[in-house]
Amino acid sequence: MKRLGILLSGRGSNFLAIADAIAEHRLDAEIAVVISNRPDAPGLAAALERGLHAISFPSQGLDREIYDRQLIEGLRAHHVDLICLAGYMRILSGYFIREFPQRILNIHPSLLPAFPGLDAQHQALEHGAKITGCTVHFVDEGLDSGPIIAQTPVPVLDQDTVESLSTRILQEEHRLYSKAIALVLSGNYRIDGRRVISSML
Ligand code: GRF
Predict the structure, then answer these.
(1) In CATH, what is the architecture of 107-201?
(2) Any idea which fold 1-100 has?
(3) Which of 173, 175, 181 to mutate to test the pocket of ligand 1 (most atoms within 8 A of CB)?
(4) Were both Cys, which of 50, 75, 92, 142 would link to 96 (CB 3.0–4.6 Å)?
(5) In terms of DSSP H, where are the helices of the chain?
């Protein structure tokens, strides 16, 4: 059974959607450990409630690489095969990323490369985009810039607010992430330049 390490900082709804997909046999994997850089993250409490290994490594004030070394130890101790960022609000050091080549996934609430970084839904509204969505991608050393695994479009409605748009994108995020994780765990893909090519997509 492939082992997932989840990194989060907040609400944890994507983590819960992954946990549900596993419980409902839509995703063949197990969650080896959930790590939060914020001790008060609701996602951490939810992981503990589900009886998962859940650890908090507070990051405040720590040098990035020193912190990431601690993170790597925690993930290695739980023998993770794949790391899933699920609302992890801290930039990973190059050192961390090089430790797990093509083994780190992220979900982002826009159709990348549009609207990388913070507040992607707000950015889409401000720009007047008619279609936005969500993206699961491999994490590289840039900001939301790694090879794209899967995307779902979401129309922007005239009456949308950041909240209403975020809610509809989030529903799609919850569906997309588990599918993308299943694809990567299956190994049934290849990366050609920036393109992730798979018969499963
Ligand atoms: C999601 O919108 C995700 O795309 C972004 O951060 C948010 C996390 O939400 N990276 P949650 O903590 O999974 O509910």
Answers:
(1) 3-Layer(aba) Sandwich (3.40)
(2) Rossmann fold (3.40.50)
(3) 173
(4) 92
(5) 13-23, 42-49, 64-77, 94-99, 120-127, 162-186
pTM of the model: 0.97
Closest atom of ligand 1 to CA, residue 14: 13
Alpha-carbon distance of 13 to 5, in angstroms, equals: 15
Give the residues surrounding ligand 1 with Cβ less than 6 Å away.
Answer: 8, 10-14, 43, 86-87, 107-109, 170, 173
Is residue 148 pLDDT above 90, yes or no? yes
Instruction: Summarize pLDDT for 155-189 with one digit per residue, the tens.
Output: 999 999 999 999 999 999 999 999 999 999 999 99
Ligand 1, from 84, 107, 136: best to mutate by most atoms within 8 Å of Cβ?
107
What digits encode the pLDDT tens for the residues 100-133? 999 999 999 999 999 999 999 999 999 999 999 9
Whether 201 shows a pLDDT value over 80: the answer reads no
Q: Cα(22)–Cα(24) distance, rounded to whole angstroms?
A: 5
Per-residue pLDDT tens over the stretch 45-70: 999 999 999 999 999 899 999 999 99
- CA 49 to chain CA mean position, Å: 21
- Residues marked active site are found at 108
Mapped onto helix, strand or coil, the DSSP state of residue 102 is: coil
